[in-house]
Amino acid sequence: MFKVSDIITTPPAEFSTPLQRKVYEAFSALGIPFERVDTDPGLTMEDCRHIDEKIGVRIVKTVFLCNRQQTEFWLYVTSDDKPFVTREFCAALGGIPRVSFASAENLQRLTGVQVGATTILSAILPECSPVYLVMDRSIAESGWFACTDGTPTCFVKILTRDLVEKYIPFSKHEIILI
Between the CA of residue 59 and those of 18, 87, 170, what are the distances in Å? Predict the structure, then answer.
């Protein structure tokens, strides 16, 4: 059975990564309330369904993309049931050149996470400054937002409004809605 803790409203007692620490420091500084659950590694969408049930909202799917030259990068937030279609993504961004999934090395270098923990919350890291943040409009218009906190074993839920109006501007990024 996949382990999901009861809902917790305080930061972890010990942080697993520098990003995880920065996320909760930013939540505190910005007055962003959150709920979180500790879990077994949530690596599949099936794992995420167990988490969804506990926190009462669906975990978003976040993919890390790059151009062929690996010089431009995008963090794309979408719903877990929406298939990723490269052609549609590129067209929605004004016809950018074809993208593909970025390497695990670039994911770690630019977003501070390992595969399975990809999150828009990485925007808080200085290394993430050249990465474009892209989100499906339907996600941005939803009431709640749930994703990893930068680890594959902790998932956090916040008001989407707090993400878009407080957290992302604090990170000095903008979100491109498609």
Answer: 22, 24, 23
Residue 18 neighbours by CB distance under 10 Å: 11
Residue 16, SS3 per DSSP: coil
69 phi/psi in degrees, rounded to 5: -80, -10
Q: Shortest CA distance to 118 belongs to which of 76, 167, 80, 176?
A: 76
pTM value surpassing 0.85: yes
pLDDT tens digits along 41-95:
987 778 888 999 999 999 999 999 999 999 999 999 999 889 899 999 999 999 8
Look up tokens 């999901």; give the residue: 4
- Joined together, the tokens standing for residue 2 give 């996949």
Interatomic CA distance for residues 172 and 129, integer angstroms: 8
Angle, vertex CA 120, rays to CA 16 and CA 173, nearest 5: 120
Task: Report whether 156 contacts 146 (CB < 8 A).
Answer: yes
Distance separating alpha carbons of residues 174 and 133, to the nearest angstrom: 7
- Segment 97-146, tens digit of pLDDT: 899 999 999 999 999 999 989 999 999 999 999 999 999 999 999 999 99
